[in-house]
Specification:
Mean pLDDT: 96
Strand content: 5-15%
CATH class: Alpha Beta
Number of domains: 1
Structural class: alpha/beta
Distance between the termini: 4 Å
Order of helices and strands: EHEHEHEHHEHHEHEHEH
CATH superfamily: Aldolase class I
CATH topology: TIM Barrel
Largest sheet: 8 strands, parallel, barrel
Number of helices: 10
Oligomer: single chain
Shape: globular
Bound molecules: 2-phosphoglycolic acid
Strand order of the largest sheet: 1-2-3-4-5-6-7-8
């Protein structure tokens, strides 16, 4: 069964007072009752989110983690440390990390391995650029990103990830993939996972890229869209809850 999953990626936003208002607004809502909902704050606010969401169904994830477990790696945060604090999910391979911080497929694969070792659920981001889509290479790009992780961790481990399809041209731009475009890529991803030996019917595939209150419901109606990874709209209580409500109203795939 694939329960709908909505994850808020706060990116580099927040502050104690602002976070508190957001978290208190989310935690009391019935919009999150029938789905899995999570927030991913910046590291310094991780514990604040855990504390304010304790006893609720909303869980907390991280936006990144180290490929290393411990040692002389200044500035790094290990999956085991996050797990210690109550972390459930970790976003890995977001296009901003790939593009702005030079994360290669090999680094992404190592981080997926590190997350699984620590008992966290990797939210593995894949997606093509505008040029790649326009030149007809979107599926090949996404396939190569998934295969790089598969060859490092194997099919069994890959069964334990959430995949987030995030076309780069749709992130933070206000341009969303149409439900048809997104569904077609999600189906491609599911078939590819199945072909390489993953039990793909159980893998949740989220869509990300300018998801908001206005477009979420139509996306969630698609058969292979199991939820959303939400950036900008997750910073407002109303925006995030409207997306959660749309997910609640959509059918859970048995
Ligand atoms: P956006 O970001 O919703 O602001 O487009 C999505 C993401 O980067 O995960």
């Amino acid at each position: 069964m694939r329960k709908k999953l909505v994850i808020g990626n706060w990116k580099l936003h927040g502050g104690l007072a602002r976070n508190e208002a957001l978290l208190l607004g989310i935690r009391g809502s019935d919009a999150v009752a029938r789905i899995d909902a999570a927030v991913c704050p910046p590291f310094p606010y991780f514990q604040q989110a855990v504390e304010l969401l304790r006893g609720t169904s909303v869980t907390v994830g991280a936006q990144d983690l180290s490929a290393y477990r411990e040692g002389a790696y200044t500035g790094e945060v290990a999956g085991e440390m996050l797990a210690d604090l109550g972390c459930r999910w970790v976003i890995i391979g977001h296009s901003e990390r790939r593009q702005l911080f030079g994360e290669t497929d090999a680094v992404v694969a190592a981080k997926v391995g590190a997350a699984l070792r620590a008992g966290l659920v990797p939210v593995l981001c894949v997606g093509e650029s505008r040029e790649q889509r326009e030149s007809g290479a979107a599926e090949a790009v996404v396939a190569a990103q998934l295969e790089a992780v598969f060859s490092a961790v194997g099919a069994k481990a890959l069964s334990g990830v959430v995949v987030a399809y995030e076309p780069i041209w749709a992130i933070g731009t206000g341009l969303t993939a149409t439900p048809d475009q997104a569904q077609s890529m999600h189906l491609f991803i599911r078939n590819l996972l199945q072909r390489i030996g993953v039990d793909a019917m159980g893998v949740r595939i989220l869509y990300g890229g300018s998801v908001n209150a206005g477009n979420a419901a139509r996306l969630f109606d698609e058969k292979d869209i199991d939820g959303a990874l939400v950036g900008g709209a997750s910073l407002q209580v109303d925006g995030f809850l409207a997306i959660c409500r749309a997910a609640s109203a959509a059918v859970t795939i048995e």
